[in-house]
Design a protein that fits this description.
Strand order of the largest sheet: 1-26-25-24
CATH class: Mainly Beta
Protein name: Jg20741 protein
GO cellular component, one term: extracellular region
Largest sheet: 4 strands, antiparallel
Keywords: Secreted, Signal
Strand content: 25-35%
Shape: globular
Family: Belongs to the major royal jelly protein family.
Helix content: 10-25%
CATH architecture: 6 Propeller
CATH superfamily: TolB, C-terminal domain
Pfam families: MRJP
Number of domains: 1
Length: 446
């Protein structure tokens, strides 16, 4: 038995040597580049703004900035319709803004494409990703008013695609089947995109009753959901958040997700590691993308995923959003500590985490990260704890975008590896071996 374990460790070390190693660290201090007390828009006319205000279709303190992404000369921002009065749920600002104090947002792709109760338009966008082909992947929950007493589930949860390269900005909507996600309870929270073998999205659903990872394959528009109660559910000891004297109870399930660079498995096939964590948890988990792609595991139900999930260890606090760069460095927030942290994934998680920014005044609930094409890392800070408690003050700065130069790019642009052997027809054997390697890596420095 000891010999077998030793062999696994040797294989793990060999796999680790094949992973791209981050270059020497060169980090610039995070700086505030934009900030808002409340969010306003570039309206088609002053009369439209007045009409929206008078009819409560625009309630400034109810507009929360959540997600962020970058493409060419624009920063895209998501504005989830948790409360009433959010006139647009996806918007952008040009990167060459002169006004750093609350630039006005432009609805994307248009005002009409953000019309409430129009199921062909965007309803509730929590997050987006833009892949290496210029395709914007949009998570539209469909259900609006999730923090109100009467959420409206008129429109189905959907994946919406916009090809940014063409400039036409047409919406391609793919509703998720009701037998995969329940329209009344699902909450499509975050995603990563894998531009291999037909393009896949791995999506966290932090549904209070059915959390899991949804897999969407673009080539045939097929989706399935994988569940693992132990790693994807909130835990009571992490459900209480304390930030700057404010306490909030948020027993939220699987939330943040990130994906590492490609690596060659023991049998010389290409794989990637997907990292995730519940919001109300101190643990970080990992699973191989090849496992998530195995649709038969979804059919098998609860328990089928458990052998492939690796518990990497604990963090100092809870994490919402996180992002991987192209070399395998993971950036994530530690909410209770007002901290931004970094982990080089080629070393043990429990000893390899390090703080790169800490500030109780400016780093109040890190929500999402993104990279631009110039080596900058952007961070959304949105004081979500005040928003969910209905304590947003319009006299204080509530939303900030921070930026730091890293010289690196998003995981989207990680190096493509070529398998030395053709993929095997059976998914179970290689994915199990690859998962053992991930587990061995996690244990190698214990």
């Amino acid at each position: 038995m000891k010999l077998a374990v030793f062999i696994v460790f040797l294989a793990a070390a060999a796999a680790q040597d094949k992973l791209p190693r981050p270059p020497p660290l060169h980090r610039e201090q995070f700086r505030v580049i934009y900030e808002w007390r409340t969010v306003d828009f570039e309206w088609e006319s002053p009369k439209d703004r007045e009409t929206f205000l008078n009819t409560s279709r625009y309630i400034p303190q109810n507009v929360l900035i959540s997600g962020i992404n970058f493409y060419k000369d624009n920063i895209f921002l998501t504005l989830p319709r948790m409360l009433d009065g959010v006139p647009a749920t996806l918007a952008y600002i040009p990167t060459n803004q002169n006004d750093t104090t609350a630039p006005k947002l432009k609805p994307f792709p248009s005002w009409s494409a953000n019309t409430m109760d129009d199921c062909y338009a965007l309803q509730f966008v929590q997050n987006i990703e833009i892949d290496r082909n210029g395709m914007m992947w949009i998570l539209d929950n469909g259900r609006v008013g999730t923090l109100t007493q009467s959420p409206n589930a008129k429109c189905p949860p959907s994946i919406v695609l916009i090809d940014l390269k063409t400039g036409e900005n047409k919406l391609e909507r793919y509703p998720l089947p009701a037998d995969i996600v329940n329209p009344s309870t699902t909450y499509l929270n975050d995603l990563v995109v894998d531009n291999r073998d037909g393009d896949f999205a791995y999506i966290t659903d932090n549904s209070a009753v059915d959390p899991g990872i949804i897999v969407f394959r673009l080539s045939d528009k097929k989706s399935w959901k994988l569940r693992d109660t132990k790693s994807m559910s909130s835990v009571p000891e992490a459900a209480i958040f304390r930030i700057n004297g404010t306490t909030v109870n948020l027993p939220v399930n699987i939330d943040g997700i990130a994906m590492g660079p490609q690596f060659l498995t023991e049998d010389e096939t290409v794989d990637r590691t997907v990292y995730y964590c519940p919001l109300a948890s101190f643990n970080m988990y990992a699973i191989n993308a090849s496992v998530l792609r195995n649709e038969s595991l979804a059919v098998m139900g609860e328990g089928a995923l458990r052998p492939y999930v690796v518990n990497l260890g604990t963090k100092a606090s809870q994490t919402d959003g996180m992002k991987m760069d192209s070399t395998g460095a993971l950036f994530f927030g530690l909410i209770g500590n007002s901290t931004i942290a970094e982990w080089n994934t080629t070393v043990d998680f429990r000893t390899g985490q390090r703080t790169i920014a800490r500030d109780p005044n400016y780093i109040q609930w890190v929500d999402r990260f993104t990279f631009d094409d110039r080596g900058n890392l952007y961070v959304i800070v949105n004081r979500l704890y005040n928003f969910v408690k209905n304590q947003v003050s319009v006299d204080e700065v509530n939303y900030r975008i921070l930026r730091s130069y890293t010289g690196l790019k998003s995981y989207i642009y990680a190096e493509d590896l070529m398998p030395e052997k053709p993929p095997q027809s059976s998914a179970a054997a290689p994915t199990l071996a690859a998962s053992l390697l991930v587990y061995a890596l996690a244990r190698l420095f214990a």
